Amino acid sequence: MTHRRRWCAGIALALASALTITLAPQPASAEDPPVEQLVRIRVDSTDLLRELEQGGLDITHDVGQGPGATFEATVVTDPAGLERLRTEDGVEVLGTLDGPTREEARAQLKGNAEPLTGRQKDALKPAPSRANKPGRGRPPVVSPDGTLTVLRADTWTTGGQRMVSLEVRSEAGRDDRLSVTADTGQSLTMSAFVDQGTYLYHRQSQPVPLTGDAGSVTVRSGADGSEVTAPLDSWLSSGVTDFPDGFRWGFTDDGYVDSEQTDALIEKLAADNPDVAEVVELPNETVGYGAPGGALAAPASYPREGKTVKALRIGRVRDGSKTGVLLYAQEHAREWVTSLVALETAQRLLANDGTDPLTTSMIDDLDIFIVPQVNPDGVAYALYDDLYQRSNRNPAYCPGAGTNLGVDLNRNFRVGSVHEGFVGASARCPSSTYAGPEPLSESESKNTAWLVEQHPNIKFAMNTHSFGGYFMWSPGAYDAQRNPLPRPSLATEQYFFASSETILSRVREYRDTVVWPGRTGPISDVLYSAAGNSGDDLFYGGDAEDNTPHVYAWNFEVGLPRWDAASQRWVDTGAFWPEFADEGFGQAMEFANGWYGILEVAQAYANDTTDPTSKANVDGRGSYSGPVDVLWETSEPATIYYTTDGSRPTWDSPTVQQDGIRGGALPIRLTKDRTVLQWFAVDQKGNVEGNYDPDRGRGAPQREVIKIR
Ligand SMILES: [Zn+2]
C-alpha cells in the first residue's frame, strides 16, 4: 500500500475545513484515527510564533525563513486549532498535510512491513556521481566601506541542479534592501532574518537554482549604495559514492520499530559480538506505556509497565581510556526514522568489524555508546496510538492531556533552562514543549546525564531528530533579551564547521542529500532558541559557566526537502512518517552514513598529536603605512593567543575573536610605529604550535616586528 502524502493547498484546504464539521465533535478513542494534521503556516515574526507556542501550539522542527522577513513553520493542530489559526492576525495558512491512517501506519511497522530485497535496496541507491571540488572556506568578504559583509556564498549541485545559498550582514540592519546579482546577470532575492526583535543577517528563504555558470555574486546595499562582490564557494566536497567493496549495509530493512524490537536486536548484537559489544542498562526506569492517560492500542505483548532503557556499547577497549562518542535518538517519540539510524549504524559497525579497515580502526580507537530510543513509552504511543506524540508519557503533571501528556525530553535539561528565563520551552503543561517542573525531572533525561557522568571519556555526541534538515550545535538557547548561552570560541565554531564538512559529506554520499549551509550552525544563529535542550547540557557539561566544550554535541534532523527537477521546487519527504520502503529506509541509510562521519571526526580527534601552525598576513620584512589589520591563517581550526607589548603570550593573553555571528576572525589593528607581535596557536585537542609551553615559558612563540612608516 502506498500513502505518499502531499501538501494540499487551495481547494484541498477548503475540503479540510469542511472536514472540521464532521471530525471535531468526535471523542478520541483507541479506534479513531487521530484528528490532528500538519499545517504549514507563515507568520510575521518569530515573536508571534513564540506566542502561539506559549498558547499551546505544537510547532515541529520544520521552521525556516519565509519571503520578506516572514517565517514559515510546520505545526500540528486539530481542525478547531486550524480554524483559530486562520483567524489569527499575522498568520497565513499555506497548506495542510494528513498523517497516514492507522492502517497505513501499521503497515510500515516491523512485523507488518515487507522486508526489502537486496535488489530493491540497490535500486534505491543512485549511481556514483562526480564529487564537488572541495570548498576553500574563504573568509567573509567585506565591502570597502564596511557596510556589507558576505558571510557565506555557497554553491552545490543536487538532483542535477546547481544551487546557491547566500548570507549577508548589513550594518544598515533589517531595513536595508539588498539587491543581489550573479555574474551571469541572474538576480537573487534576500530578506532580513529578524528573531526576537534582533536583526541577525539577510538570507534567502531557500537555496535557489543558479542559471548558467555563475562564479560570483555582487550585493548592493539599498541604504548607502555600497557594493561587494564575493566568489561562490563549494559546499560539501563529496558526491554519491558506492560503499567500499564487501561493505555490509541495509540492515534496518523491515519497518519502523518499538522498544521491544529494539531491545531484542541490541541484546542479540551484544550476545553475538561479546568481544566488542555489551548492553548498558540505564538506571532510571520510565513510568511505562500503560500509565494512566494512554489509549493503549499496542499489541498485548507490548509491556505496559515501566521500562529499562538500554544502550549498546561498542569498542575493542571499553575501560574508559578511549575517546567516547554518544549517539542517541528518538527523544521525540514521533520521529520514527531516528531509531533506525541508530540500529543501522550499530549493525554496520559490528558486521564490518575485521573486514572494513575504517570500521575496524574506529572500533579499535573509540568507545561508542548508542541509545536508539531515549523515550520508549512515547515511541510505543506514537507507533500504536497517536502519530503526533512528541513527549514522554509521564502523567504526573497534566493527566488527561492526550498527545501532550508528558514532558518534552529535549527541554528537560539543566543548561539554558526555561526555569532560568531562557526562551523556547513551556514552564506550564500541557504543552508540546513542556520542560517539566524542574531540570532532569524525567527518568529519560536523567539517563542521558548519567551516561555522560559515568563515562567522562565521552567527548562527542549526536542527538538525532526529524524532520527539517537542520544540523546544529551550541549555543542552542537565549533569554528574553536574546542573550545566548556563552558562545563557543571562534576556533571551536570553525572546528564544528570543519567537522560538519566530514559528517555532511558522508550523508551526501548515499543519495546526494545535501544539508543546506543555511541550516548548519549554532541553533540560535540559524533557527531559534530551544531552552534546556540536551545538546547544550552536554556541550557545557551541565553548567554554562564558560564556553569550554565538554562534549562536542551536534543535533541532526533527518528528513530534508528534496529538489524536484520536474516541478522546479523543494518538496517535502514524508514528515515524521515517511513511507518506509521508498523514503524512510533511505533516510536511515544516509544518516547512518552521517553517524559514521561523526565517528571519523572523533577518531581523528583521538589520534590528533599534530601541532597546529599559523601564519600572519603581515611580517617584519613588510613595509606598511597607516593602521595594519592582522589576520592569521591556521593549518586547522585553532585559537590564536597574542601579545602586542613584547611580553610572552600565555593562556591569559587575549585571543582572536569572532566578527559577529557567522562571521570570520576580527582582525587585530596595529597603529604604533613599531609593534612586537607574538603569538601561538592551539587546536581543539590542546596541541600547541611549535611545542611552545605558555605556562613555563619553554620554547619560543611566533614573532614578527611590524613597523609602520
Ligand atoms: Zn525532535
UniProtKB/TrEMBL annotation:
Q: Name one GO cellular component term.
A: extracellular space
Q: Which domain of life is it from?
A: Bacteria
Signal peptide extent? 1-30
* The keyword Secreted appears for this protein: no
Q: Does the keyword Translocase apply?
A: no
What is an example of a Pfam family matching this protein? CHB_HEX_C_1
Region Disordered: start and end of each range?
109-146, 689-709
Give the active-site positions.
E557
Q: Name one GO biological process term.
A: proteolysis
Q: Which cofactor does it need?
A: Zn(2+)
Give every Peptidase M14 domain span. 255-584
Q: Can you name one GO molecular function term for this protein?
A: metallocarboxypeptidase activity
Q: What keywords are annotated for this sequence in UniProt? A: Hydrolase, Metalloprotease, Protease, Signal, Zinc
Of which family is this protein a member?
Belongs to the peptidase M14 family.
Q: Which PANTHER family match?
A: PROTEASE FAMILY M14 CARBOXYPEPTIDASE A,B (PTHR11705), SLL0236 PROTEIN (PTHR11705:SF143)
Name the UniProt record assigns to this protein: Peptidase M14 domain-containing protein
Q: Which organism is it from?
A: Naumannella cuiyingiana
